[in-house]
Inverse folding.
């Protein structure tokens, strides 16, 4: 049975129906499909234009789902929500088994993206230092886990697993878009740098985070930041 995954398309108007965009959940699902060696087809969804035939086709084929990622597999009812899709993929395509039984690996970096988003969206300059510090604190916790508790190159050993597929897109958002507010992952967090380098050795990661996707992450955050971009430029 064929597998189709509807994912958010590029922020570039000319590439929106051709390339993967900046959605971490979409990136997560694409990585998992690649790690499992599943043959799949990507359909790229433009969330900015909902009065087009492309949008109507998306809603029709997904039976009324309105937000990617959405997975279609044969005659199974379309599946939305990234966590639900992940569970279905693990149950349906059991090899390789990507589950982690390491409780700490499963929650490593769980607050990272929310702290990053608060910092990036903040439009009150006086709050930036506090929000920046909160983000650095979360990165420090992740760095310590990778350095002292991780049993291998990745969160739970020497192969990418589900927790990595959840974390890596979020780290890539920080790495690629943080510079919009003069933020980079501190150099002293060497374990995070090593983790990202090791991920780059994996085909599933490299084929997901190609240069256009990295560029799109930055473009997406430019749009999301709004007034915070202006306040940052005045500092």
């Amino acid at each position: 049975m064929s597998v189709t995954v509807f994912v958010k398309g590029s922020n570039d108007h000319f590439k929106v129906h051709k390339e993967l965009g900046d959605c971490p959940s979409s990136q997560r699902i694409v990585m998992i499909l690649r790690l499992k060696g599943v043959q799949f087809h990507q359909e790229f969804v433009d969330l900015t234009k909902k009065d087009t035939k492309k949008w109507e086709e998306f809603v029709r084929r997904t039976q009324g789902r309105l937000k990617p990622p959405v997975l279609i597999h044969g005659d199974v009812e379309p599946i939305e929500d990234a966590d639900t899709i992940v569970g279905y993929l693990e149950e349906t395509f059991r090899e390789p088994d990507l589950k982690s039984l390491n409780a700490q690996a499963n929650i490593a970096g769980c607050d990272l993206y929310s702290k990053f988003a608060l910092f990036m969206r903040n439009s009150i300059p006086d709050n930036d230092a506090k929000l920046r510090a909160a983000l650095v604190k979360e990165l420090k916790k992740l760095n310590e886990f990778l350095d002292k508790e991780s049993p291998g190159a990745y969160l739970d050993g020497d192969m990418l697993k589900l927790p990595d597929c959840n974390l890596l897109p979020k780290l890539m958002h920080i790495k690629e878009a943080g510079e919009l507010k003069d933020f980079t992952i501190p150099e002293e967090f060497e374990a995070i740098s090593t983790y990202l380098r090791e991920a780059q050795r994996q085909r599933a990661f490299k084929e997901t985070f190609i240069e256009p996707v990295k560029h799109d992450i930055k473009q997406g955050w430019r749009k999301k930041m709004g007034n915070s971009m202006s306040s940052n430029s005045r500092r």
Observations:
- Residues 125-148 form the longest helix (24 residues).
- The chain has two domains: 3-92, 103-231.
- The first strand starts at residue 3 and ends at 8.
